[in-house]
Amino acid sequence: MSDKIIKGVSVTKEYGGVAVVKDIDFWVKKNQFLTILGPSGCGKTTTLRMIAGFERPSEGHIYFEGRDITDLPPYMRPINTVFQKYALFPHLNIYENIAFGLRIQKMSEKDIEIKVSKMLELVNLKGFEKRKINSLSGGQQQRIAIARALVNEPKLLLLDEPLGALDLKLRKEMQIELKNMQRELGITFVYVTHDQEEALTMSDKIIVMNQGEIQQIGSPTDIYNEPENAFVANFIGESNIFDGLMHKDYDVSFSDYRFECVDAGFGENSPVDVVIRPEDVKLSATGDGQLSGVVESVVFKGVHYEMMIQEQDRSWMVHSTDMFPEGSEVGIQIDPDDIHIMCKEA
Amino acid sequence: MLKKIASGPYLVWILLFILIPILMIAFFGMVRIDPETGNYFFTSDNFKRVFEGVYLSVWTRSIFIALKATFICLVLGYPMAMILSRMDVKYRTIAVMLFVVPMWMNFLLRTYAWMTILGKNGVLNKILTFFGLPQMTFLYSEGAVLLGMVYNFLPFMVLPIYTVLSKMDNGLIEAAEDLGANKFNSFRKVILPLSIPGIVSGISMVFMPAVSTFVISNLLYGGQYMLIGNLIEQQFLVVNDWHFGSAISIILMIIILLTMAIMNHLSGNDPEDGGANLW
């Protein structure tokens, strides 16, 4: 018995001959918070819907605790979903919305009452039992949707961009609340979002998807610090990506300068992509860095300044708390462990 | 200001063609003419007569057959509306058109068509004879009237239910399934309750014309079969008792208004929700 609660094996989904999800393998460990991250149309929602059972994979299998559930209808899966548009039942009040799944299980009225009021407490909406759905704000509806799913004590909770419709402040609050709920209840979460910050904040593990394919699977720090390709580097935070040449292990050159780096295994004299995060670039007043350039623009971002530096024919984005005025010449300093090497994409 | 001016013609229209006729009918119903002096005098005789034994049986028969027709339309119409709403968009428009097209044809013509199908030498009996079976009487029966009603009024049941079903958020059905409801439970607990506004307007749209029709019963049963509509027609055109005819009309109008009020109340919908006011 493995600790993988859900596993997808070479899962493909096609609509009219067009593959939306292309032969992906994934798994989620028990009690993990997994996020599927990607731009819209990358196949992340389709993947979630296949786990929920609303879509049947064109090819491949999905296993739940080792059992093949590929052909199981949604109502027979011990999985619940929080939908993007909440999908609360407008003809039922809040109590009945939350009780919906319990009534299907034919639970006794007394137990239903206990569970529903416990859930309402959990989502901070006690006393709302008799209210109608359309009398709630977006944030409150979101909480009811979460309560309605969690009350069934699913082993796996799927969340399809559940915070997408909320304003920024509420979204941040709900991110923390969701993470806390997941920890307290010990339920496995699979969360779909296109918001990289959300993914980095909440997840134990992130799957980055693009155009139906998995780009990278890893912890938030792995994904941020060691992006496997230019897509991930660009999608997760901002990056400077340059063409470079890997002479041998730990030795890369770009911009006519040979840098020491910490990456190996790319072969000799192979062309690579070099990724440098804007906050990893150190600027100095005069030419004491490895490279030098001219400040093109300065924008104040609150915590830091965002500066564009022109260095030969390359444009560098730099985040720094020290400001260098526009037009001034600066030295660019990069430490070996801030240089990330990636294979060139075919 | 512009709104007020623009609504002018409609107000005139309502006044001339709806309000004044109703008031006239109400007036006719409440008076009779003294045969000696030729003067109008107010009386409740017309209304009392409406509830006399002979006519009471016409009332019950009319209401009963209208209820039957409404029920059959609902039982047939709901699954039809459901199939229509689930159809691929490509074919859906055509299928809905097929439902609506017969309504473009004259109502009388459509009912006459049934006469030629059901008649003694009609299409159905020809088919029976072809297979060596004995001829049957289809026309001039209550069944024929019922058939005529269902045929003519079915679209009025299908369309409002179809509208509600096709507007329904598919996410709600998925949510129900996600929470453990199988097809039957998600129909019973989500789809059906959410389509009640459509059912209610369908029932009203079928019951109203069914309870007041006289053409269908006239053509498919013949003169001896009396529905309320026939009774009113007879009073106005044959017996020439406009006062009694008006009294029946008023009572019929009250019955229809009452059923609509009850239906609207049953649907339990806020008027702002709009679902029930599809027509």
UniProtKB/TrEMBL annotation, chain A:
Q: Which CDD domains does the UniProt record give?
A: ABC_PotA_N
- Any idea which UniProt keywords this protein has? ATP-binding, Cell membrane, Membrane, Nucleotide-binding, Translocase, Transport
| Stretches assigned to the ABC transporter domain | 6-236
**Pfam families registered for this protein in UniProt:** ABC_tran, TOBE_2
Give the EC number(s) listed in the UniProt record. 7.6.2.11
Query: Catalyzes what?
Result: ATP + H2O + polyamine-[polyamine-binding protein]Side 1 = ADP + phosphate + polyamineSide 2 + [polyamine-binding protein]Side 1
Can you tell which superkingdom this protein's organism belongs to?
A: Bacteria
Give one GO molecular function term: ATP binding
Q: Which PANTHER family match?
A: SPERMIDINE/PUTRESCINE IMPORT ATP-BINDING PROTEIN POTA (PTHR42781), SPERMIDINE_PUTRESCINE IMPORT ATP-BINDING PROTEIN POTA (PTHR42781:SF4)
The protein in question is named Spermidine/putrescine import ATP-binding protein PotA
| Native species | Fusibacter tunisiensis
Ranked from the top, the taxonomy reads: Bacteria, Bacillati, Bacillota, Clostridia, Eubacteriales
The gene behind this protein is potA
From TrEMBL, chain B:
- Top-level taxon in the UniProt lineage: Bacteria
A matching Pfam family: BPD_transp_1
What keywords were assigned to this record? Cell membrane, Membrane, Transmembrane, Transmembrane helix, Transport
> Where in or outside the cell is it found?
Cell membrane
Q: Which InterPro entries match?
A: MetI-like (IPR000515), MetI-like_sf (IPR035906)
Q: Which residues form the ABC transmembrane type-1 domain?
A: 59-263
Bilayer disposition of the protein: Multi-pass membrane protein
Membrane-spanning intervals of the chain: 12-33, 53-77, 89-107, 145-165, 194-221, 242-263
SUPFAM superfamilies recorded: MetI-like
- What is the similarity comment for this entry? Belongs to the binding-protein-dependent transport system permease family. CysTW subfamily.
Q: What is the protein name stated in its UniProt record?
A: Spermidine/putrescine transport system permease protein
